[in-house]
Amino acid sequence: MARYDFASDNTAPAAPEAIEALIAANTGFTPGYGSDAISARAADAVRGLLDADAEVRFVASGTAANAIALSALCRPFEAVLAHEHAHVCTDETGAPGFFGQGIGLIGLTGASGRIDPKALTAPLAEPDVAHRQPLAAMSLTNATEYGTVYSRETLSALIAPARAKGLGVHLDGARLANAAAAGFDLKDIQPLGVDILVVGGTKAGMTPTEAVVIFDRKLARRFDARLKQAGQLPSKGRFYAAPFIGMLESGAFVERAAHANAMAQRLSKLTPFPVRHPVEANAVFVEMDDETLGRLHAAGWFVYRFLDGSVRFMCSWATTPQAVDELGGVLAEISR
Question: Is the overall model pTM greater than 0.85, yes or no?
Fold first, then answer.
C-alpha cells in the first residue's frame, strides 16, 4: 500500500485543535452565511494574529480564495504579475481568469520561488497599450512553492515599486503558518502594503478552509455578493470558521507549523540526494532521476516530481520523526 506521508501537507489529517473547535461549534442554531458569532470570533482571531484592522471571510479552498481575491483587484482586461511557478500560474486551472472574467497572469523569474526584484523592472516600465492587458496587481506567495520564505525586506523591495505604479498587492499565504514559524512576522503584512491576503487553513492542519483577509476596506464592498456568485458563501459558515478558532486561540497554528518545518530540516539532513532549494519551511526538494524515483514509488512512498524537475517532499503537522527516519533509510537504500 502506498504511503502519502510526504506527498503533500494536504494529505495529513486535521489537527486535534481544529477538530475540537468544529465539534464545539456543532451545537444549537445560528444565523447562516457567516453572520454567526462563531464566524465573528474566528475573524477576531485572524485579526489578532495579524494585528490588523481588516475584513475577514472564510472560504472552502485556496484556489477559490486566490482567484476571488485577484478578481477583486483587477478588471477583466487587466493582468497580474506573479512568480512563474506560483500556484495561481501553474495549479489553478485558469481560476483567476475564470473568476476575474478574463484577467491575465504574467510570470516572473526568481530563484527558489521568490520573485527577483530585477524581474519587475521591465513589466513595470511597459506603457499601457490597447493590444495587451495592462498591469493591475502583483501576487506574492509566502512561504513560496519551493519552501523558501520572504523576509520583510525582500517583500518590501517588491511591493514598494509595484505600489508606486498603482498596482494592488495580493499575498497567497497557503503556508503562511510555516513562514511565521520560520521567523516571518505576520504583523508586518499590512504595513508592507498588502491589500488582500489569504491565510491558509487546510495546509496548516485544519479541515478545508481558508481565510480571505481584506486590508483595503474599499475592496470589501459587495464582497459577499462576489463570494455568493462564486459558490463560496456557505450557508453553514460556522464550520469553515471554527477551525481557525481552535488553531489560532491555542497557538497551534504556528506551533504545529514549527514542527512541520523541523521535520523538513531533519529530512534534509538524512537525504543522500542533492537538495535543490534552501530548506526554510516544510519542504525538501532533491535531485533524483526517474529510475530512482520509480524505485522510491516501488518501495511504497509516493511523492511528486515538481515544476523545476526536482522531487518534492512535504512535511506536515502530523509528520513524525519515526516516519522521517524510515524514509531516510529508504532514500539511502535506493541511492546505492
Answer: yes
